[in-house]
Design a protein that fits this description.
16% of the residues lie in helices and 35% in strands. It is α+β, with helices and mostly antiparallel strands.
Length: 431
């Protein structure tokens, strides 16, 4: 598989279908997996596969469903505009009898951004197409659709979590609540609670953020949803109790405090960065006092870092400059002396200073952001027959997708990024 961000491809004929299937093309027929005239896909089949890709990819597009939609304009350049409207002030000046007032004007501002292309493809051999029992075009399309959906959803999500309107869950231990103002201070004890949901909704109401279908919406990770539902108890209204369950949002799991919750495994997680060999959390093996040499339980290969890796040691920021392998564990060489106890966590930066993963729940009002639409040319399904490009023996065909996408925050005050810990913070990884 090859990743390409710029694919200039034209959809042409399929070269394999399931046994017994007959498919008309513009220049002939595909029967029992054989193309009798391989000039082009019929318009009907092209539309079918394009729609299949968009439908399957759409299942993963949770983050984009609440944004202003803009089509990709053909021959319109790489810049797209989203519009936001300023609110009119109160008209508190009394009108004079018989005199027409000055009136007002609708203030519209344009937010411009540049679209990008994303895409990928799968190559297939002629032998696979000849011998495969399943329709490989269909199976490849399913896998590519899932990839496309997750890719485009992540593009939107990454834009949304960059917002400036943020709230942090307070730390609650032994009934004592402590305010948190920095991501690095969040721990497993900082969980999203019922009162936090009401608080976030109140913040949106206070700025007159319009609701989405009568409610505010929150995109939540399953781990955080688990914590919240456990705490909410009977206050949580699951979708089975809805009066009109047919009007569910994509991924919706229930409501609380006038907020409809949509669940996604792609809800952003800020977790400790990797230190070495895919590990982001290490554990102190032997206590040390004011030492730049710390033994850890994990067995790692020896390495000297060209650039010191930033880490948290005992809740204090430090760096690791080298790792020395040992028979039973490893030894870290730190950039500054540290005092540690056996069992302490040493972790990369990015999440909590104690190694906790931090979860983002996005509370949204209407028109908070804009996205380009996957339909109308925003997402394309591309099939190439054997013999395309440099393939003199007709040995390779390919199936791929290409998308043009951008997302843009429009009204920061209409969205809140609520950061919290979870019962799963100790082990969750970045997504």
């Amino acid at each position: 598989m090859h990743n390409h961000s710029n694919l200039n491809s034209t959809p042409i004929t399929l070269t394999h279908f399931g046994a017994g299937q007959v498919m008309n093309t513009t220049g002939g027929t595909v029967e029992n997996g054989v193309v009798t005239d391989a000039n082009a896909l019929s318009a009907e089949m092209k539309a079918f596969y394009d729609k299949t890709l968009i439908t399957l990819a759409g299942a993963n597009l949770v983050h984009e469903q609440f944004g202003q939609k803009r089509p990709i304009p053909k021959n319109g350049g790489k810049t797209i505009e989203f519009r936001k409207f300023s609110k009119l002030p109160k008209a508190l000046t009394a009108i004079t009898e018989g005199v027409t007032p000055a009136g007002n004007k609708l203030s519209v501002s344009a937010v411009s951004c540049t679209v990008d292309q994303y895409g990928d493809y799968i190559e297939q051999t002629d032998m696979l197409e000849l011998t495969a029992v399943d329709n490989t075009i269909v199976e490849a399309t399913k896998e590519l659709a899932a990839q496309a959906g997750l890719t485009l959803d992540t593009v939107v999500r990454n834009e949304l979590v960059g917002g400036t309107n943020v709230m942090y869950a307070p730390k609650v231990e032994n009934g004592v609540e402590t305010e948190i103002t920095l991501r690095e201070d969040l721990t497993e004890a900082c969980r999203l609670r019922v009162k936090d949901v009401f608080r976030a909704a109140a913040e949106l109401k206070a700025v007159n953020a319009p609701k989405i279908g009568g409610s505010y919406v929150a995109i939540i990770h399953p781990y955080v949803a688990y914590d919240l539902m456990q705490e909410a108890g009977e206050q949580w209204v699951g979708i089975t109790k809805y009066v009109s369950p047919e009007s569910l949002l994509k991924g919706e799991i229930g409501t609380l405090g006038g907020v409809r919750f949509v669940e996604s495994t792609e809800a952003k997680i800020f977790a400790p960065a990797e230190i070495a060999e895919g590990l982001s959390r290490l554990h102190v093996k032997t206590a040390a006092t004011a030492s730049t040499s710390v033994a850890v339980k994990e067995a790692l290969e020896s390495v000297t870092f060209d650039t010191p890796v930033e880490i948290w040691v005992g809740g204090v920021k430090n760096t690791v400059t080298a790792i020395t392998a040992g028979e039973d564990g490893s030894t870290l060489t730190l950039g500054a002396a540290a005092t540690v106890s056996a069992g302490d966590v040493i972790c990369g930066t990015g999440g909590g200073r104690d190694g906790s993963a931090v979860f983002c729940t996005l509370f949204l009002g209407e028109n908070a952001y804009g996205v380009t639409d996957v339909e109308g040319g925003g997402l394309q399904h591309i099939v190439k027959q054997c013999g395309y490009g440099n393939d003199p023996l007709n040995q390779r065909s390919s199936v791929g997708w290409k998308a043009t996408k951008v997302a843009k925050r429009l009204l920061e005050e209409y969205m809140i990024r609520f950061e919290s810990g979870s019962a799963f913070s100790a082990t969750a990884t970045e997504n």
